[in-house]
Amino acid sequence: MKNILISLIFIIFFAILSYGQKGTLTINNKIKMEKTIKVAAVQATPVFLNKQKTVEKACVIIEEAAENGARLVVFPEAFIPGYPDWVWLIPNSKGAELNKLFTELVENSVSVPDNSTDLLCKAAKENNINVVMGMNERNTESSNGSIYNSLLFINDKGEIIGKHRKLIPTGGERLIWARGDGNTLNSFQTTVGKLGGLICWENFMPLARNAMYELGTQILASPTWDKSSNWLISMQHIAREGGLFIISACMAIRKDDIPDVYSFKQLYPADREWINTGNSCIVGPNGKIIAGPLEAKEGILYADINLDDIISAKRMFDAAGHYARPDVFHFDVIKDSDK
Asked: Cα 173 from chain centroid?
């Protein structure tokens, strides 16, 4: 009996020692979650309306981020095959021109799964990195003729673990993208923590944010088209409100990055160089910017984050914990299973 007890003590000791050396936690005996990790926000230019070449560029960026030690990389909103900025330039009365652009956008949008997602998954697996990819996504479950503004979540084993469709396109975007629903409002357990995503001005929706908080999200991917200083302020507020890390990735694109074949390019001011300067950043759970903002250039932002900082941030204020007051407020996300 004494020998058995001594053996058990040694087993426990070496298990604790092993944990201290590796710095990982085992979740459900399946996922080893690192407490201190390097994350990356991509500020890059797509090959405009060219799905194949944009995916190829994304795979190169994924490899670069991994080579620099990142375990998670987040791409901009609608990166594949680009943001349809013409919605802010061409009036809806120009039907023929809009039809042509929309057709080309749909034909270069991603079906989940397809060859494009296969390539992205391969890159994630080969480089042992989690990927959040902003994309135009076809509604393959029905007509295949509409598109969503979506995020695709791929784990470091190269598996698609989920997607999120933007709930409400903003302004002129509603002429392009369909509305998402509660079925894709989720958070996913990964080796870098609990990972969720809200796209651009979805982050302004208090109830969408609360859904992320209640799901226990530790890292919120917030890809955007918004380059404003007000956006940065919002990111800082939301990170502090939710007690989580935020990775805000914005596309950087010049007027010259749009081929001359697209006539809407002439609607920009003649002296305008940048259509979007980016302003990507990474924010800690205390609301402080820890990487960026990056402006008027392509690049990758990196930050080392420690998930224990989330617990520290929530000691005084935990929106989905001791500050939630479920006896006063009731919150629910409607999914198909609830109808």
From this structure: 19
Query: Residue 63: pLDDT above 90?
Result: yes
Q: Which domain holds residue 180?
A: 32-338
Would 19 be classed as within a structural domain?
no
- The pLDDT score that the predictor gives to residue 36 is 87
77 catalytic residue (yes or no): yes
Catalytic residue among 77, 137, 173, 202: 77
3-state secondary structure the chain: CHHHHHHHHHHHHHHHHHHHHHCEEEECCCEEEECEEEEEEEECCCCCCCHHHHHHHHHHHHHHHHHCCCCEEECCCCCECCCCHHHHCCCCCCHHHHHHHHHHHHHCCECCCCHHHHHHHHHHHHCCCEEEEEEEEECCCCCCCCEEEEEEEECCCCCEEEEEECCCCCHHHHHCECCCCHHHCCEEEECCEEEEECCHHHHHCHHHHHHHHHCCCCEEECCECCCCHHHHHHHHHHHHHHCCEEEECECCEEHHHCCCCCHHHHHCCCCCCEEECEEEEEECCCCCEEEEEEECCCEEEEEEEECHHHHHHHCCCCCCCCCCCCCCCCCCCCCHHHC
Q: How far apart are CA 144 and CA 139, in angstroms?
A: 5
Among candidate residues 166, 194, 265, 314, the one labeled active-site is 166
Q: How confident is the model at residue 1 (pLDDT cuts 50, 70, 90)?
A: low
Q: Which amino acid is at 250?
A: C
Q: Is 200 a catalytic residue?
A: yes
- Asked whether the predicted pLDDT for residue 20 surpasses 80, the reply is no
Report if residue 16 sits inside a domain: no
With respect to residue 98, please indicate whether it lies within any of the assigned structural domains. yes
CATH number at residue 304: 3.60.110.10
Of the candidates 34, 137, 163, 200, the residue annotated as catalytic is 200
Number of structural domains, the chain? 1
Does residue 5 fall inside a structural domain? Answer: no
Q: How many angstroms separate the first and last alpha carbons of the chain?
A: 58
